[in-house]
Specification:
9% of the residues lie in helices and 61% in strands. It is mainly β. It has a single domain, classed as OB fold (Dihydrolipoamide Acetyltransferase, E2P). A five-stranded mixed β-barrel has the order 1-3-4-6-5. The longest helix has 10 residues. The radius of gyration is 16 Å and the shape is globular.
């Protein structure tokens, strides 16, 4: 039987300063955005680079590591898993989003 795994690897540049949230129970989470590039061919035959933005988060020791070393603009490889969640916006509408939970980060 084949096991299906939720695993993603992204290589890109940290696009925002890390935001750390510390909770009363002692846990912490780090959040930041990551920019990746995709090269695509336009109708005129020329190529263009498109930037895609990803929401990234990490817990605990990984969050503290990212807070210390994960500066805006730094090129990194992130290994983790996709997390889908939903929330209600201020107007009461349900919104869905996909984030990447970091399991490993490597500076490049």
């Amino acid at each position: 039987m084949t096991t299906i795994r939720n695993y993603v690897t992204l290589v890109g540049n940290i696009g925002s300063n890390t935001q750390i949230t510390n909770f009363e129970n002692g846990k912490s989470v780090a959040r930041f955005s990551l920019a990746t590039q995709k090269t695509t061919r336009k109708n005129d035959g020329n190529y263009t680079n498109l930037v895609e933005w990803h929401r990234i988060f990490a817990w605990g020791n990984m969050a503290q590591f990212i807070e210390k070393y994960g500066e805006k603009g730094k090129k990194v490889a992130i290994h983790g898993r996709l997390v889908n969640r939903s929330y209600l916006n201020p107007e009461g509408k349900k919104r869905n989003l996909t984030e990447v939970e970091v399991r490993q980060i490597i500076g490049l």
